[in-house]
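Objective 1b of the project was to move from sequence-level analysis to a structural picture of ligand recognition. The entry below was assembled by the postdoctoral researcher (A.K.) and checked by the PI before modelling. It contains the amino acid sequence of the target and the SMILES of the bound compound, magnesium ion.
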Amino acid sequence: MYWGDKIVVAVGGGKGGIGKTTFVANLGVSMAARGRNVVVIDADIGAANLHTILGIRYPEKTLNDFLSNSQSDLAGALVETPYPNLRLLSSASDVLSLASPNYGERQRLFRAVQKLKADAIIFDIAAGTHQRATDFFSLAPIGIILLEPIPTSLENAFSFIKNLLVRGLLRRFYHDKEMTAFIQNTVDPRSTEKNLHFSDLLLKLEEKAPGKIGAYRQLFLEGACKMFIVVNSVKDPKQKQVGEKFARIIKRYLALTMEVLGTLPYEHSMDDAVINRVPFVVKYPDSGFANGLSAIVSKIESQNLHEAALE
Ligand SMILES: Nc1ncnc2c1ncn2[C@@H]1O[C@H](COP(=O)(O)OP(=O)(O)O)[C@@H](O)[C@H]1O
Ligand SMILES: [Mg+2]
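Corresponding predicted holo structure:
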């Protein structure tokens, strides 16, 4: 998908409760404060709470306004936030049908997001490794995997990335039944080849379909597809190394190059900010979290990636 000169970021991590929504809200506020016209998209449909962290109790418009009216454009479903240059596409809803927009609805939504007039778009991705989450994530040229320095977070992040990559491969071969079966069988945990590394899978695919996978493999090996790590809620300086360690594991087992974008400290007052419905960086602009985030924003702004490499 081509995004023109927009900065498009997706924030996922596989696990719930690790700070994805908090990060997206504060990232949005920080980028908007630097003068960019930013839209944050709550893609955690069914468990939306981005609006609350941004201080909006009842969003007047939501994604549902877009989905339920085939004539509408997405700009009409955005709400202003208390922060200049920052708009929100909220998924807050009591409507059950909104919990799972179908494939067609998602495609319509993706096309509409692409047409949005904005300098930056940030997706808050749901927990879990289901296709709805990975689909949204693979739209963005800049993918950020948020980690907490605990094994369960690393475990879920690994599964999230693996599912994302496997679905990327399946998309490439969707018209080829034999290859699809081969990929599915290889990644099936019951398969005899279960110890096969993802990099070996790529090599095997290249053998089976010369020329088809080369460019895709290259993206991995050269790190041209940008997947980043942010370690959140760091309580002890040693935990900062978790990001590098995770990147090594991903490189080894999934052949993907990931770069650590930064680390953010654990902040005791984070929940107070949520209770007061004010983003943490607004309430505590001189905190370690705000400084860490500011360094991350600079790194994001220095990337020059406008196409979704994993698509
Ligand atoms: N850096 C941090 N320090 C302390 N608490 C944090 C930090 N980041 C997030 N939290 C807290 O963790 C909880 C989960 O955050 P949330 O953003 O809702 O996670 P997710 O979207 O991944 O489910 C919230 O109570 C939030 O205030
Ligand atoms: Mg969340």
